[in-house]
C-alpha cells in the first residue's frame, strides 16, 4: 500500500493538476484542475480510481479552469480555502483577459481552514493555511508520507507571485515560515515547475533563507 501522486502538465501556463490516490483502495482526489484535454479522465479510467473530491490550493484561472467539468463528470465535492471566494468570483474575468478555456464557476462544497484534515484511503492530509499568493491559499500535507502539495505558494527556487489582486508579499513570507518547519525530506509538488524538497528549498531558495 502506498500513496501515489500523478502529476500532469497542462495549459498555456504549464500548470500541474494532480491526481492523488491510495493504490490499495484505489480511492483518490484531484488537486487544481486548471485545464482539460482528456488525458486526466483517461488516466482515472485506466487506473479504475474512485475519486472522492476536488481540493484546490487556490482559485486562479490556471488552477480552476476545468474544475466544473470534472465536478460534473465525477459528481464529487469541491473544496478551497477560506477567504478565497474573491479570487473564484474573479475567474470569469480572468479567463476572458487571458483567453483561457473556462468551464464555469464550480459549486463550492466547503471551505478549508488551517488545521483541517481529510482522508483518502488509509492516508490523512492536513490543511496548512498559506495566504500571500492569494488571500485564501492553502497547502496539503501528508505527514506519514512526508508529501506537500504546495500549489503556487512554493516553487523550486522561487515562490508564487504576489502582484496579482489579493496577493501580498509580506504575507507569503510568513506562510513560508510554516513550510520551513516541515521535515527536510518532505517532497514538494508545486503548481508549476519541478518537484523539490523542503530541505533543498531551505538550503537554496532565497525566499526561505
Descriptive overview:
- This protein has 209 residues and is an alpha/beta fold.
- The protein has one domain: Ribonuclease Z/Hydroxyacylglutathione hydrolase-like (Metallo-beta-lactamase, Chain A, 4-Layer Sandwich), CATH 3.60.15.10.
- It is built from seven helices and 14 strands.
- The protein has helices spanning 39-47, 61-64, 67-74, 85-89, 91-98, 169-180, 198-204, and strands spanning 3-7, 18-22, 27-31, 50-55, 78-81, 110-112, 117-120, 123-129, 138-142, 147-151, 154-155, 158-159, 187-190, 196-197.
- Strand 3, helix 1 (39-47) and strand 4 (50-55) form a beta-alpha-beta unit.
- The radius of gyration is 16 Å and the shape is globular.
- The protein starts with a strand and ends in a 5-residue tail after the last helix.
Give the C-level CATH assignment: Alpha Beta
What is the count of DSSP helices, taking H or I runs of 4+ residues?
Answer: 7
Number of domains: 1
**Distance between the amino and carboxyl termini:** 36 Å
Instruction: Give the strand order of the largest sheet, numbering strands 1, 2, ... along the chain.
Output: 1-2-3-4-5-6
> What percent of residues adopt helix (DSSP H or I)?
25-40%
Taken as a percent bin, the fraction of beta residues is: 25-35%
Number of strands: 14
**Broad structural category:** alpha/beta
CATH topology: Metallo-beta-lactamase, Chain A
Radius of gyration: 16 Å
- Relevant CATH superfamily: Ribonuclease Z/Hydroxyacylglutathione hydrolase-like
Task: Name the average pLDDT.
Answer: 97
CATH architecture: 4-Layer Sandwich
Give the low-confidence spans.
Answer: none
What letter string, H or E per element, gives the SSE order?
A: EEEHEHHEHHEEEEEEEHEEH
Morphology call: globular
Task: Specify the biggest β-sheet.
Answer: 6 strands, mixed
